[in-house]
Amino acid sequence: MSSIELVNLTKRFGDLVAVNELNLEIKDKEFVALLGPSGCGKTTTMNLIAGIENPDGGEVRFDGKNVGSVPLRKRGVGFVFQNYAIFTHMTTYKNLSFALEVRGLPRDEIDRRVHEIAKLLDLEDRLPVPAARLGVNEMQRLGIGRSAIANPQIFLLDEPLSNLDAAFRAVMRTELKHLQHQLGQTMVYVTHDQLEAMTMADRIAVMDMGVLQQYGTPLEVYNRPRNLFVARFMGSPSMNLLYCRLTESDGGRALDFDESGRVELHDEALLKQCASARNADLYFGMRPEDVELSPVTGDRGGLAMTVTFVEHIGARTIVHLRSAGHEVKAIERNDFDVDIGAPMEVSPKPGAGWLFDAATEIALGAG
Amino acid sequence: MTNNRALNEIGRYALILLAVVIAMVPIAWMASMAFKPVEEWTMSAGELTWWPRNPTFGNFEYIFTGQTEAVIISLDRTAVGPVIASLVTALFGTVIAVTVGTLGAYAVSRFKVGGNLPLSVLQLRLFPPMAVMIPVMIMWTYLGMIDTWWGLSLIYGIVTLPFAFWLMMTFFDEVPREIEEAALVEGCSPWRAFYRVTLPMVKAPLATTCLFVFILNWSDFLIALLLTTKDWVTIPVFMNELFTAMTGPMYGAKAALGLIAAIPPVVFGIIIQKHLVRGLTFGALKQ
Amino acid sequence: MSAPATTAKDAAGAVDLAARGRKLGLLMTLPAQLLLVFIFAFPALMQIYISLTWWTPGDGTIWIYAYESFVWFDNYVELITSERLWEPIGRTMLILIVVVPVEFVIGFGLAVLFVDSFPGKRVFYSILLTPMMVVPAVAGYMFFMLFQSNGPINQILSLLTGTDVELVWLGDTTLAMIAVMIADIWQWTPLMFLILLAGILGVPEDQLKAATLLGANWGQKFWRIVLPRMRTVIIIAIVIRAVEAFKLFDVMYVMTKGGPGVATETISIYIYKLFKQLEWSYLAAVDLSILIALSVIAVIGMTLMAKAKQKRAGDVVD
C-alpha cells in the first residue's frame, strides 16, 4: 500500500514561493502527472516527495504517515532524473545491482534480480557493457531499472522522455505505462508536455506558479477546465477564448459578442452555467475541433468572422478567423478549403462550449 | 537530526582552523622576526616571543641601506640590487616564455604544426634543472652570459616555457575555431585573425599565464645560484649569502628579506587562484 | 560560382584554417623549436660526450679536449656499482615515500571539507593555498628558523609536553630528515588539496543524488562513486608531486645544505655537490641516467593527461 498525500505543502527559495500550500492525494497504484510550464513547481514538488528537498511548511505523507523526518536514503522511492544520472563509470550490470549491493544482499540473490529486471527491460544482452556506451533509449530504461530493482512502491519520474526524439517518445509512453501496471507501483510523473500527460496519466495535476490549478482525469481537465490557465494549457491548438457579455434575449439568455454578433443560448449545460454567473463579463471557450464553420446565412445564430489564414497540416486543416476584437481557430477535415478573406459564420457544435467568469478567470459553476 | 548537523559544522570549522593555523605559523614567525630588533633575534633573555617587544623597521632599513643602529657590521651591498635583479629577470623571463609559448601554442592549436612541441616542452619540466645546468653553464660562460640580466632572463624564459605553452594551448583550445574562420572569410590573413581577433579575446588568460610564469621565475633559486655571481644576484640567492658572508645568523635581516621576497608570489597567486589547477597540471585539470 | 581560391577550402566549402595558416604556423613555432633544440640538443650531446671521459675543469683544458681522457663507460659502471649515487637516491625515495602519501591524505581530507559551501570558504581557501605560493627558498629559511634548537618548534613542544625540549633538529641525522619532510609537507600539501578538490567537484552531483536515493550512505558513495571517478585525477596528482619531489633543492639546501653530513642529501643536492667538486664527467653520466629514467615517466604522464582530456570529452572512465 502506498498512497501519497501532500498536505499544505510549501517550499520557498528565498523570496520565491516554489510550492504554495499544495494539497494533493495520490491513490495507491495510481499514475499521476504533474503538468505545467517551466517554473510552475512540479519538479520541486517531486523533490519534496522524494526527500531531496525539505518542506518549509506542510507535510508529505506515505500511507498516512508523515515522512518528513525520514532521511533521503531511507525513503524507498524510485527516482528517475531527467538526464538519467546513471553511473557512467560502471557497467550496466553494476548500475542495476547498485541498490541491492548497497543493502548488503547476498551475491546470488543480487544476480538473480539483476537478470530478472534486465529481462523485463530488454537490457539483458547489454549487461556487461559500460553504461556510458549505451544508447539514449537504453540509458533511459537503465535509469528506470536501477530504481525499480529495489521494488519501491512509489516511483517518481522527472520528465524522463524529454531527451528522446518524438518517435521514440511515443513508444516509451506505452512502455512506461505497461511497466507501471506490471510492477504495480504508484507513479508520479513530471512533464510540461500536455499530450504526454493526457496519454499516460490516470489523473493530471495542472500547476502554475506553485499553485494547483486543477486535478482530475485527462478528460475532465480537457473538457471541463477549471480556469483560463488550464483551458489555454491543454490542447493543441488551445481552446478558443472569446470575450463576451451575458444578456437577455426574447425568451432566454444570449451572449453578446459586440460587433461579431450574438449567440443564443439553448444548450442545457451552458444555461446551467449561466445560473451561477455573478456578473455579465464572461469568456466563452470552445475547442477548435468543436467549431462549426458555414457560409454566412444568418440563421445559425453564430458569429460573423473573416478567414485570415488556412493551414493544411496533413491530417487536418486549421482555419484562422478573425473579427473585430475576436480570434478563432477551427479544425476541419483535411480537404476543407476556403479563400482568405472569405466571410464565415462561426458557431459551436451542439453540446460544446464552456463559460468562464472574465474577472476571476474561473469557470462558471466551478466555484 | 539538527544536532548531528551542528556537530558536523563545528567539527569542520575546527579542522579548517587547525589547518589555517599550521599554514600560517611559519609565515607568522618569519614576519614577526622581520620586525624584531637585534636583541630579540635569539633567546638571549631566555624567552622566545612571538610578538616583538619592540617592533621596528630596523631590519628593513638595514638591508636596504646597509646600516642601522645596534648592528655593528654593515653590509658591503644592500638588497636594492637583488630586488632589482629579481624583478628584471623575472619580468623578462616571463616576456620570453609567454611570447614564445603563446605563439607556439596558437600554432599548435590552430594550424596542426609542431606536433612534437607539447611533449618535448613538457619534458623540459620533468628533468631536474641540475641535469642540464652544466652544459648550460658552459654555454653561458662561452657566450659571456654569466652574471648578466639577459643571460638569466633567457634561461628563465626557457625553463618556464612549458607552463606558458601548455596554459595558453588549453586556453586557445577553448576558443572556437569558427571565430578565426569567420575572420578569414572576411578577408583577414591568418596573422591578422590571430592578432586582431583571437588575441584580444584571450586577454584574461594571457594575464593569468603571465602572473603564473612570473611567480615561477621570481621563486627560482638554483638557477640564479649557478648563473649569477655578484652583480645580478636575485633575492633568494642574496638571502642565502647573507648568512655565509656575515658572522652569526642574521635572522631579522634575512626574515625581512624573506618577507619582501614572499609577498609578490602570494599576492599574484591569490589573484589567479581560479586557474592554479590548470597551470599546475598543464591543462589536464580545470577548476 | 567559386571565386579563384583566395581561401583554401575543404570539401564542404568551409574555410580551412589549418591549411591557410600553415606557413604562419611554422613561423610561430620556430622560436619554441629553436629554444628546444638549444636547450636539449647541445646539452645532451655535450653530456654524452663528457660522460665517456674523465675530464674535469680542473684539468685546465676546455671540455672539447675531453677526448684526451676517454674512459668509455667507466663512469656509468661506477654509477651503478658504487654507493655514492644510491645513497642520495635512497634518501630521496625515502622522503618521497613518506611525504607523498601524507600530503595526499591530508590534502584529500581538506578537499572533502571544502566540497560544500560555508561562510568564509573563499577566505579559508586562499589562506590554505598560501604555503604553496611562498618562494621555496624563503620557505626553507622559515623552517630553518623554526627548527633552531632555541627556536619556536622546541618552544611549542616544551609547552605541550611540559618539559624542556631542546632538540637539535638540524644537527641530528634523523631529526634533520624529519624537519625537512615537515617543511615539504607544509609547502606542498596545498597542491594536493587543490588538485583533489578539483577532482571531487568534477564528480557529477546528480549521480551522487541518485546514489543516495538508491540507499547509499556516505561511505558507500565515497568508495563506489567518488573514488572511482577520481582515479585519473589522483594519479595525476601523485605523479606531478612525485616528479617535483625529485627535483627538491631549494628548501633542502637552505635548511640543511644536505647535512648534517650527508643525512639529508637528496639527489639534487648530491648533484650540486658533484658540480661544486668539479666532478663534471661523472656528473654528466649521472645526469644522463636520470634523463632516461625521467623520460619514461614523461611518457606515462602524457598518456594520463591525454586520457584526462578524453574523459572530459566523452565520459568513458575505465
In short:
The complex is a heterotrimer of chains A (367), B (287) and C (318). Chain B has 287 residues and is an all-alpha fold. Chain B has 13 helices and no strands.
Word description of this protein:
- The complex is a heterotrimer of chains A (367), B (287) and C (318).
- Chain A has 367 residues and is α+β, with helices and mostly antiparallel strands.
- Chain A is built from 9 helices and 20 strands.
- Chain A has helices spanning 42-50, 92-102, 107-120, 136-148, 166-183, 194-200, 218-223, 228-233, 268-275; strands at residues 4-13, 16-26, 31-35, 57-62, 65-66, 77-80, 154-158, 186-191, 203-208, 211-216, 240-249, 252-256, 262-264, 281-286, 291-295, 303-312, 316-323, 326-333, 343-348, 354-357.
- Chain A has a 6-stranded mixed sheet with strand order 6-7-8-3-9-10, with helices on both faces. In chain A, strands 13-12-11-14-20 form a 5-stranded antiparallel sheet.
- In chain A, strand 16 and strand 17 (316-323) form a beta hairpin.
- In chain A, helix 2 (92-102) packs across helix 3 (107-120) and helix 2 (92-102) runs parallel beside helix 4.
- With 287 residues, chain B is mainly alpha-helical.
- In chain B, 70% of the residues lie in helices and 0% in strands.
- Chain B has 13 helices and no strands.
- Chain B has helices spanning 2-34, 58-65, 80-111, 117-126, 129-142, 149-173, 178-185, 190-201, 203-218, 222-227, 235-245, 251-271, 276-280.
- The longest helix of chain B has 33 residues, at 2-34.
- By secondary structure, chain C is mainly alpha-helical.
- Chain C is built from 14 helices and no strands.
- The radius of gyration of chain C is 26 Å and the shape is flat.
- The two termini of chain C are 50 Å apart.
- The chains are: A alpha+beta (367), B mainly alpha (287), C mainly alpha (318).
